[in-house]
Design brief:
25 strands; about 500 residues; about 25% helix; Jelly Rolls; alpha/beta
């Protein structure tokens, strides 16, 4: 890929932070919201006050008291005042928020004034729900039964005791809209970290959560702090552009003679700046998951198979074992599908496939795991179209599609990229890429490091962005050989050049 091509390519999900909507202008660069006054906040700030520090009130553990100074805001002596909204408006952001609540208190941080990460005194809670601290609050509809829906509890309770400072670090992706203003992709919490612990990964929010300021959705919006539910203090709040989609490495790219163990592979991808890893689901998955947790990177998906032919075992013991290992993480099974009686891509296997996939999906749903069909050359689900067809028939919200660039190029014409992405986008959970040569029909030409190949990677990523994709993108390194560290290093450098190209 030429440098000139990369310079002119606008790629990835950047619309939210870099493009405004009528009547608003998104913030640029890092924005700090708490200082010596309320100049960063709009309108009436009610009883919110500026302090130098906050702590539990000496005669009432359910209230907070402030000390003179600046750098901290407290929502008044009773803890019941107005919600406040920032003047700056944001789309895709990386945010840091520090907060303190007394015993039994409640607040919330609303991205774009619409999507809440819950602030609550959840100290000691054993099984946290969406209403506990770090939860992504539920949506609400008076006409539904039940009226509350789509809440997401944190996978673990990372809360500190009342009166202690706590933190959120959040990567949020704004919803996407086409040129006509129609929504083409939902808002997404890419990651929520509570007190240094990852409590959410890749959680989609289909609309504003309960008690939001607005019930519509926009490309940008202000940060809102809830002030009417109980005493709370905030400090050190900043937001900055979120940057590119999370970029991870498949374990096809991380293994060589020097990097065999899970520890060696995970530490390498972390050092090089990758967001996570996508391993096989066979032996060693528990160790890989533990290393990912230890190093604060994502185990994005685990590669595992299913069979739909008559008389074939539907799946091996590694599949339910993988679900158990991944439980509560919102990670994925990367599910390839084979058949001993149906031709590749033949709809004759659809009914049997749907039954097997629903069975797997229901097991996965019970453990908070998703399933992404993995199109693979020569397998029954070979093409992106096959995956989209079967996922549509399966009708499970936790079942989606993978777009594998190398397998797509092997069986299709690259000019069909836009139409296929449009088909896949309602179900698209994950994408894999690598350097490739246009017109290549062998793996040596179709799987290279990202700094090589004649395929227009910038154009492909631009199409993904234009269609509203904001999810994870992985590097496929099957068969490249050589030094894994150097391959990953060159690939990450190419990825960053692609991202930097949007600013030139």
């Amino acid at each position: 890929m030429s440098m000139s091509r990369m310079r002119i390519t606008v790629v990835l999900a950047v619309v939210g932070f870099c493009c405004g909507i009528a009547g608003s202008r998104p913030a640029e660069g890092r924005v700090e919201l708490i200082g010596g006054d309320f100049s960063q906040w709009r309108g009436n700030t009610g009883d919110w006050s500026i302090c130098g520090e906050a702590g539990l009130k000496s005669d009432n553990a359910g209230l907070l008291a402030g000390k003179a100074g600046s750098g901290v805001i407290v929502n008044g002596p009773t803890g019941r005042t107005v919600n406040i909204l920032s003047k700056a408006e944001f789309g895709d952001v990386r945010a840091h928020v520090e907060f303190m609540v007394p015993k039994g208190s409640n607040s919330g941080v609303y991205f774009q004034g619409r999507y809440e990460v819950q602030v609550f005194d959840s100290w000691g809670v054993k099984e946290p729900h969406y209403s506990d601290c770090g939860g992504i609050y539920q949506r609400w509809d008076d006409n539904r039964q039940p009226q509350g829906y789509e809440g997401h509890g944190p996978k673990v309770n990372a809360s500190k005791a009342p009166g202690q400072w706590q933190s959120f670090d959040v990567v949020f992706r704004t919803p996407r809209f086409d040129k006509a203003g129609r929504k083409i992709a939902n808002a997404r919490f890419e990651k929520v970290v509570h007190n240094g612990v990852v409590v959410h990964s890749d959680v989609v929010v289909t609309g504003p959560t309960r008690a939001s300021t607005w019930n519509d959705e926009k490309a940008v919006g202000p940060l809102m702090l809830q002030g009417d539910h109980g005493p709370v203090a905030y400090r050190n709040i900043w937001l900055e552009p979120a940057g590119p989609n999370p970029f991870f490495a498949m374990d096809t790219a991380t293994k060589d003679a020097k990097h065999q163990s899970a520890k060696e592979q995970v530490e390498m991808v972390k050092e090089l700046g990758y967001s996570g890893i996508g391993p096989h689901a066979g032996g060693g998955l528990e160790e890989m998951a533990a290393e990912c947790e230890k190093n604060g990177v994502s185990l994005v998906a685990a590669y595992v198979g299913a069979n739909i032919g008559s008389g074939q075992q539907k799946y091996g013991p590694e599949l339910p074992a993988a679900i158990e290992t991944l439980k509560g993480t919102n990670s994925m099974l990367w599910l390839f599908v084979q058949s001993n009686e149906d031709k590749v891509s033949s709809p004759s296997g659809d009914e049997r496939a749907v039954a097997v996939i629903r069975e797997i999906a229901d097991m996965a749903e019970a453990k908070g795991v998703r399933v992404a069909l993995y199109p693979h050359t020569g397998f029954w689900v070979e093409r992106v179209e096959d995956a989209v067809r079967v996922v549509g028939k399966a009708g499970r919200k936790n079942v989606g599609v993978t777009f594998n660039l190398c397998h797509w190029l092997m069986v299709d014409d690259e000019k069909n990229a836009e139409s296929l992405i449009k088909q896949a986008i309602p179900y698209l959970f994950v994408v894999t890429i690598n350097g490739a040569d246009s017109g290549g029909k062998d793996w040596g030409k179709l799987i290279q490091t990202l700094d090589k190949g004649t395929f227009d990677m910038g154009g492909f990523l631009k199409t993904l962005s234009e269609q509203g994709y904001t999810g994870p993108i992985g590097f496929q390194g099957y068969g490249i050989g050589g030094d894994a560290y150097e391959n990953l290093k060159r690939t990450m450098a190419a990825w960053r050049r692609l991202w930097a190209g949007m600013n030139q």
